[in-house]
UniProtKB/TrEMBL annotation:
Domain N-acetyltransferase: 3-154
Active-site feature positions: Y124 (proton donor), F416 (proton acceptor)
HAMAP family attached to this UniProt entry: Eis
Residues reported to bind acetyl-CoA: V83, T84, V85, R91, R92, G93, L94, L95, G96
Keywords: Acyltransferase, Transferase
Record's protein name: GNAT family N-acetyltransferase
Record carries keyword Aminoacyl-tRNA synthetase: no
Amino acid sequence: MSLDPRTVTVSDFPDWLRAVDTGFLRPHAATQEEIALRLTHTDLARVQGVFDAGRCVATFRSFAQELTVVGGATVPADAITTVTVSPTHRRRGLLGRMMAVDLAAAKERGDVVASLIAAEYPIYGRYGFGPAAWTTEWEIDVPRAGLDPRRPVPDEADGGRIDLVDGDAVRALGPELHDRLAARQHGVVSRGEQWWLRSTGVHVPASETWTEPFYAVYRAADGTVDGLVTYRADARWGDGKQPLNTATVSDLIAATPAAERVLWRFVCSVDWITTVRTGRRAPDDLLPFFLPDPRAARVVTQADWLWLRVLDVPRALTARTWDTEAAVVLEVHDATGLTAGRFLLDASPAGASCAPTTRSADLALGAGELATLCLGDESVARLAALGRVDELRPGAVTAADALFRAPRRAWCPDMF
Ligand SMILES: CC(=O)SCCNC(=O)CCNC(=O)[C@H](O)C(C)(C)COP(=O)(O)OP(=O)(O)OC[C@H]1O[C@@H](n2cnc3c(N)ncnc32)[C@H](O)[C@@H]1OP(=O)(O)O
């Protein structure tokens, strides 16, 4: 089999899109207009394909992204997406080949991490990725929640207000609000203009069906837009006259916990809504505790979500903040060589330094474990108990465990 791996050209692009649809098991429906539109915002230099007798059989794309790390700073990330290999060509190393090309380019460019949402858990660990942010979805049994249906939301004491708005308003208000979320929540990834156009129904691929959602913004007492929720409702009735509607939230972002509280209570207060599906939230989301009976929020999904791969150890570890003080020498094993080495991390609440060292190592770990730890969402002690972090100096696990932890869980609200 003579295969041609290459960077995709404009003339390759329609067949490349066809191959993506094949890999993701969906009917190929892209129109000429859609293909032309996608080309306007696709950096072809970062689109790879493998061709067999002129036909695309493998796809891979990356794009520039900013990732918020612990403490609110952002680092440049190499966001990987649309990874597919045709079922006729799987398990011949095509993904491995495309991944190596992309990660080498990302490292060369100066990206600090690579990021992706893994379709299946077993795929990406071998490339040095690890799950760095998990996600939880709840279903709220509204009648059980104990909220008072006679009260307006927000109540008068709040002083703020909620307005139903349209997609134009969301595109106007959303980016600034999202910037404020990103500044306070590690794990958040940047949303470019395309994200807003797609999520408000302006640019929807032909393979997807668009249903116009409801959008509501929360303005605090001083008029600042502090929150935005997007939800859709079904039309289920029991006995023909008993409303049993479910509201499914596709996005709820807020700049303050007070705004989160008002918006969740608002969705639960909509007449006819008896069930609320929350969409992807952080595992430690405040949501259940906004309800008088937190047990009314039942976990329906809990899973790994954002996977990271560290490309630059010193920059990944110095960009974040640290709540305690410790110096630890990490021996990083990385079969690809991208980050292998021994690094002295000297961290304190005042800042951190991290650089290659010849000192003896305190802890040994793989690149995937480092990725899993870097947003503070996993415990060093747990990884040590699993045999995935080796303690080389007594006490190092305890010290590193306290050091790496973040006050709140990481949260990546987006699929990309
Ligand atoms: C970020 C994203 O886009 S996530 C979406 C990923 N894509 C999909 O899930 C679509 C359906 N699946 C596919 O298209 C393909 O099976 C892919 C892309 C996942 C893998 O492509 P392949 O070319 O078969 O992978 P490749 O041959 O390079 O395999 C590399 C290794 O990963 C392993 N591997 C690949 N996919 C899987 C999987 N789904 N489960 C377990 N192991 C896997 C292979 O066995 C191989 O292992 P080895 O190195 O020990 O021999």
